[in-house]
Amino acid sequence: MPAADVKSLDRTGLAEALESLGEPGYRTGQLVRWLYGRGATDFEQMTDLPEALRRELAGRFSLSFPALVRRQVSAADGTRKYLWRLGDGATVESVGLPAGSRLTVCLSTQVGCAMGCAFCATGRAGFVRNLLPGEIADQVTAVARDFGTRATNAVAMGQGEPFANYDATLAAFRFLNAKDGAGIGARHLTVSTSGVIPGIRRLASEPEQFTLAVSLHSAVQSTRDSLMPGARRWPLLELREALAAYVETTGRRVTFEYALIDGANDTEAELQALLRFCAGLLCHVNLIPVNAVPGSALARSSKQRVERFRHALQSAGVEASVRVERGADIDAACGQLRQRCEA
Ligand code: SF4
Predict the structure, then answer these.
(1) Whose CA is nearest to atom 5 of ligand 1?
(2) Residue ranges of domains in the chain, CATH in brackets
(3) Helix, coil or strand: residue 81
(4) Res. 337 pLDDT band, cuts 50 70 90
(5) pTM for the complete prediction?
(6) To bridge 104 with a disulfide, which of 22, 153, 244, 251 should be the other Cys (CB 3.0-4.6 Å)?
(7) Whole-angstrom distance, CA of residue 35 vs CA of residue 182
């Protein structure tokens, strides 16, 4: 029988495995520190665990760490894009975004994605598999190691729909949040969903103050259906209700991602629908001048349209900002790096 992958276990799973070996409770923290605080690549490195336990763990579990396939560094702003190979040969990408003393890691939660968003290269390639908790958390460790610093923020905004892999994403966030893991504050850990309502409801009931972002991209149902076909199951009306309930329960703000696409979702009617959607909701709108996706007819909105949206939202009392473009001189939209490497 092949050894179980230690990266498939959440914290409780690690604790149970150690308990079954007759180990005291504090060993869990030691193991988490080695796996997610220090990014160990071999049980032999875990020098504060007894030698017999290291041997026992190595016999029961496989231990993999992402292997670098390709790295691109933006000459413009230092953004780094990574393509990693996982234990089974699957590849995923992450992005490291340095800004002053901060390092934000944009991580993937699935290999591929089933949501099929029109503006996304990953969506067009389809779904392959869910990532394990450790495969999600390891991206942060690997990127931070490459920068030679610790990560201060992480966002699940790379490949995949995090709420389609809810348990693994939350388990990874807990490793990233833990003092003996990556030690990143809960509010600095953001999960970005295409609007999966059951996931939003579950997140509202979690004890940690993780941040929620929603890829909205249109507040007009027909436009959203065509841009984000995978999100059709959760209509805007129900999404708005779920978000109001989330804000009510948690007292926390929701961030909307809105990629502005010329002629598709940047019209005056779209703006008015967005204003209605945001009215009375504790939210922040991130306006994103969309990156061109090779082979797609979608083009970015003009500067004037972006500015019109920002101004109208702010005038209506809705917090809004235009996302500064990062890494424009390296591969752009999510999924492009992986596709290029596998082509
Ligand atoms: S934008 Fe995100 S949710 Fe949509 S297809 Fe791409 S990876 Fe999936």
Answers:
(1) 123
(2) 4-62 (1.10.150.530), 67-342 (3.20.20.70)
(3) strand
(4) very low
(5) 0.94
(6) 153
(7) 10
